[in-house]
Amino acid sequence: MDRLKIATLWLGGCSGCHMSFLDLDEWLIDLAGKVELVYSPIMDIKVYPEQVDVALVEGAVANEENLELIHRVRRRTRILVAFGDCAVTGNVTALRNSVSNVEGVLHRAYLEAADLQAQVPSEPGIVPALLERVVPVHEAVPVDYFLPGCPPPAARIRSLLEQVLAGTPPALAGQDLKFG
Amino acid sequence: MAAKTLTIDGRLVGAHENQTVLEAASEAGIKIPTLCHLDGIADAGACRLCLVEVAGSPRLHPACVLKVAEGMEIKTQSERLRKYRRLLLELLFAERNHVCAVCVANGHCELQDLAMDLGMDHVRYQYRFQPFAVDVTHRLFGLDHNRCVLCTRCVRVCSEVEGAHTWDMEGRGAKARVITDLKQPWGEADSCTSCGKCVHGCPTGALFFQGSTVGEMERDRTRLEFIVTAREKKQWIA
User: Fold this and answer.
1) pLDDT tens digit sequence for B213-226
2) Domain-embedded: residue B95
3) A57 near A83, Cβ under 8 Å?
């Protein structure tokens, strides 16, 4: 039997959604029997592979690396899930949009708020440049399903994954659609 | 007082002639989504979430300010209404900063509840990210314009229940804001009696008690109900 190829991604987010994913505890063992994890921040792989069945995308699209990666992910993935509030709405990652432009945000974070060695990090080719505006994933590429929550509780992640694994479009309702 | 009979979602419902469709539906146990409506104060028709279909009328009507009429046929659920309610809700979310995760009212918010009730899993419109100020000049309360949905409950509850009319509105459209007195900082608004009724009436995290942090802003609506009951029924029930 071909196991579904699953990927998880970490864009502009705090990794809390991945922590919640790990809260699935022993169900992860059942899941491991049904899917093959092919790309994730919790494994050692550098390049997003071809022909991925399901990708859970945590975080908003905040910098050039996020943007390039999410386009590659969309091209190579059958079902793309916006995983958590940052991916679905921009959430905390996007709060900077109403503060200032990129220059102003970097100035605030790395100069005004610095205690020691105040400098804006600049390593072209290594540190990706910030996008002018943080956007939720669906503003960058088409998204198939949305999994809100900050973070989505483990039971909600399980509910969505079970439906996706069963080949049915996930129908989340009521408390399972709670933002925050 | 004359009674009227109307049909709501195919059910015959009796109502007093002065009642609104929202009141008649509510008494019959038919739930219509609302946001700016608050029991005990006058309705404003500000949020449009309670829109219903009226047979014979091409446009949609807000149930909170629509008076019942004999033989009226109302639909509270339809594909068209679902579409418009969802659109209105998404525009409310897109207009200001409603980041539930870092809001004092997380878990106690009527906007957040509506998103769940109406099945809103994401917002299809671009968020506007308008920068708005936070007024924490009052010694007891705070005002975060970023969370305000312009429902005007604070304006009405302050005017009608407390009788102070500290709150009002300035500006139009997306630039509209609630203000205290003649746009003074809240802490300098002389007419404010510091009663807190506006805070208890607010549906979101826009008005909050100083010192509350994420998810801590719970309201006590019984404080408003107490006065409304006393006034309308002459019963002082604590």
Assistant:
1) 898 898 999 889 88
2) no
3) yes
